[in-house]
Amino acid sequence: MRAAATTDRQAATRYLDPFAWLVRGVVWAMGAALLVLLLASGRTTRLDHALYDWHMRHWSYAPGDGVVIVAIDLQSLAALGRWPWPRAVHARLLDRLGAEGVRGIGMDVTVSEPDAAHPQNDAALAAAVARNGRVVLPMFAEAGELGGMSQEIEPIPAVAEAAAALGQVDVPMDEDQVARESYLMAGLGNPYWPALGLALLRIDQPAAASPLPGLRDNGSSPRSPYLWERDNLVLLHYAGPDGSFGRVSYVDVLNGQVPPSLLKGKLVLVGATADGMRDTIDTPDGVMPGVEYQANLLESLHRGLAILPLNLAGQCLLGMGLLMLPLVLYGLPGLQRAWRVAGVSVLAGLLLSALLLRLAGLWWPPGACLVLMLAGAMLWELANRLDLLLRRYSRRRHVVASHGA
Predict the structure, then answer these.
(1) This prediction's pTM
(2) Beta strands across the sheet bearing 193-194
């Protein structure tokens, strides 16, 4: 009992040793510098993406019934013929949706070139858009020719002028070609175009998503009139895999075969879901069509579920704070081994990241911190073992020298 008390006093003395804390401060400063380098270089991005994707796959939710997708599906292609369909067909769909009392329509269908052979179809579509008064049409940017400067591609003038709003359909991809994010504003030279889902939400609720969420561009570099500029970055909270939102067939709506209750008072997104023609997007919840991506954006904004990624400064400050934890814990009762301290610290980092995500809607990527804490524990254990070997070697030499004398 007395020996145990003596051991505890010795451990407490070592823990409170000012020189030991000076060493820990130096170690923390080195770790903080490495943390900044790791975060700035993106070396742990893959680990962070894996942690984020795993978490989001286990954090789905049931979307409300306020968003409905009118799907350009295989059934519609079989009934209406090969794509693209005459624009008069889209005009009939808009009139039908208007008669059913939908609150707004987002057309994820490109009409950027006039139908030279059938100009009456363009006129019919423009007239239907104007009659409805609540139609949002897509715009995007692309190079006019290979290697050329980007241009904003809008609907043909007659249709664009009749639309209630235009919305950009830019889908940012991470290095692994997975779409986790969305820029709520983007544009050539200046981010003045809202995302399609945001534009549709504001047709129905002008004050929605105000002030606009998202990580802002600091504007430190001058904007170029020839570059696609983005702002208000958010991470999407996907409802689930492809098919999570209510979906009705385009041709069924056109023919009046959809019960009015499925459309009345809804926000409608029209887009391709048929294999072979849809713009497929890889997400943490699997592959889905672009129109479902827009539905997730719309639902995230409507319900306030969009996630704000921490900027680099916030990541660094939070990470530096967490790096203090193993240095404070080391030496406490039961935590005299580096691997135990590292285990506790890593679990604390994962828990902190999860709590910020779930409770505050903030994403802090913990990968750099976790790597540094594990690497530090390995080096500390290696140093301790090396020190132990050196002490044993020194004792043996002392014993041999004593016998020789």
Answers:
(1) 0.87
(2) 193-194, 181-188, 228-235
